[in-house]
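Annual report, structural modelling task.

Input specification for the guanosine-5'-diphosphate complex:
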Amino acid sequence: MAKRALITGITGQDGSYLAEHLLGLGYQVWGVLRHDSDPAASRIAHLVGDLSFTRAEFDDSASLLSAVERARPDEIYNLAGTSYVPTTWRHAELTTEVNGMGVLRMLEAIRVVCGLDESTAGGGIRFYQASSSEMFGKVTETPQHETTIFHPRSPYGVAKTYGHHITRNYRESFGMYAVSGIMFNHESPRRGSEFVTRKITLAAANIKLGHQDKLHLGNLDAQRDWGYAGDYVKAMHLMLQQPTPTDYVIGTGTLHSVRETARIAFETVGLDWRDHVVVDPDLIRPAEVETLCANPAKAHAELGWKPSLTFEELIQTMAEADLRRLSTG
Ligand code: GDP
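The model returned the following structure:
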């Protein structure tokens, strides 16, 4: 019988790639949607006919419980939540509700559906939690690995750190197969336009087509460990297929700057970034996380996971996709 997966945050960048990946592996895929979400007008519009849906809210435990009861999944991928870090200062409490408490509510739903308590162990449902490199924040060592100390620097990072710890706690308390992937930044043509890589590739395409003249950016020297989202969802799936549940850092282990991103994106569309990029001091962040760089050795060794695209290929792919999309209207 086909395995069943339930994905929260299915309309997001990662949710859409994960749904495609799992459908390709023969899974029956369910998506959790919020009450006002229209999948036909989202990143999964092309998959709607192949998916099943159930509606739930992350601040409503009963709705999450009934979503798990309806889908009866073998695997749950918890990808729901706010993801753009700077705006989490503006709604810190909501971020904590969804990115933090939402994880606890999901774990409780699994515990209830599987009938687990302190005297019973295991349960049939495997759980993946989307943890984040933002948990490392003010880093104590570089590169960061699975046991590097967390020092989150934003409400987003703090909420994700709670989600990470509570997932491990349910694994240890109830013997649940519950794991976290500590994922570094991952991008794609489906990345939200507020994130710097996509902001740059969209602008390069718009400038090429004469729709825009300048691109305003903040700190050009900021560096990140950027990978391709399509590779990262494969790691999520692999993490739920192991003999023993454990957490993994997923990243490329290489750093690139905003300046390099701009150079590659503009070159891809046949322009020179220096003719179009303007540094805007208002876009420079006051309290930045320090340089985050992954040590993905454990994922390489135990999951056999490796990125399939180089950074240059990733940015080229994004710039080409934006140019194609904008050219054809
Ligand atoms: P984050 O790592 O989740 O914050 O991902 P972002 O893509 O939003 O930002 C990555 C880095 O790019 C950060 O260090 C930003 O300070 C830097 N950056 C420089 N200019 C910009 C900009 O115009 N927009 C954004 N979003 N980031 C910028």
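The first strand starts at residue 4 and ends at 8.
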